[in-house]
Amino acid sequence: MNKTLVKVCGITELAQAEQLRNLGVDYAGFIFYAPSPRYMVGKIEPAALRRLKGIQKVGVFVNAAANEIEEAVEAYGLDAVQLHGEETPAQAGSLNARIQVIKAFRISGDEEVKTLTGPYAAAVTAFLFDTKAKAYGGTGQQFDWSVLKTAQFSRPFFLSGGIGPDDVAAVKAFLTENKVYALDVNSKFETAQGIKDLALIQQFLNGLKGL
Ligand SMILES: O=C(O)c1ccccc1NCC(=O)[C@H](O)[C@H](O)COP(=O)(O)O
């Protein structure tokens, strides 16, 4: 069985991205959505991020224009883009022809998740399930993961939304019964918005060992 990968999202410092890479984190998420407190533009130099290797760099966008996304991919050397708004399957598919696209779905618990993901199956590389809340992401709120149980998704998925240091046991239990491609963590591992607590992340990674 493949190991479940880990993505740390909302990074605003190059040094932290390097440290996370050194801890063995698989994906680093960078927010390209100006209203977010984790907006990274102006905080990390494009050329410096482009030189960073050994961790998959994901740009997170909310309803951004295709040319804005493509410019950021080029300037920052992104490996994947995460579409976290109301982007259509056609928009996602057109980007996915050039770069891996992770489509985020914000879950309230009332919807049929397979109905949401169905139209995107052929258009994206992976799905990401986050919690539906007032803000688009980074809210620290968790949804009821049982809505994903038993569903066979046509794409690998990231489990996201309020996963914190105290959730190791719950995550492990969920992973024993469900095939999760990667875990996505963010605000529950911060000392301030956009600044990660690396000791907590190391502890979390240690807790997941053996999966
Ligand atoms: O993190 C943000 O500020 C953010 C803002 C707008 C869109 C997406 C954003 N984050 C995307 C992520 O992938 C987060 O890791 C995900 O929402 C989970 O965050 P959290 O609930 O804090 O663990």
Automatic annotation (TrEMBL):
Top-level taxon: Bacteria
EC assignment: 5.3.1.24
Pfam families, per the entry: PRAI (PF00697)
UniProt keywords, alphabetically: Amino-acid biosynthesis, Aromatic amino acid biosynthesis, Isomerase, Tryptophan biosynthesis
Pathway(s) of this molecule: Amino-acid biosynthesis; L-tryptophan biosynthesis; L-tryptophan from chorismate: step 3/5
Major enzyme class: isomerase
SUPFAM superfamilies linked to this entry: Ribulose-phoshate binding barrel (SSF51366)
Membrane keyword on record: no
Catalytic activity: N-(5-phospho-beta-D-ribosyl)anthranilate = 1-(2-carboxyphenylamino)-1-deoxy-D-ribulose 5-phosphate
Gene Ontology annotations of biological process type: L-tryptophan biosynthetic process
Domain N-(5'phosphoribosyl) anthranilate isomerase (PRAI) positions: 6-206
Family: Belongs to the TrpF family.
Record-linked HAMAP family: PRAI
PANTHER family linked: N-(5'-PHOSPHORIBOSYL)ANTHRANILATE ISOMERASE
UniProt-recorded name of the protein: N-(5'-phosphoribosyl)anthranilate isomerase
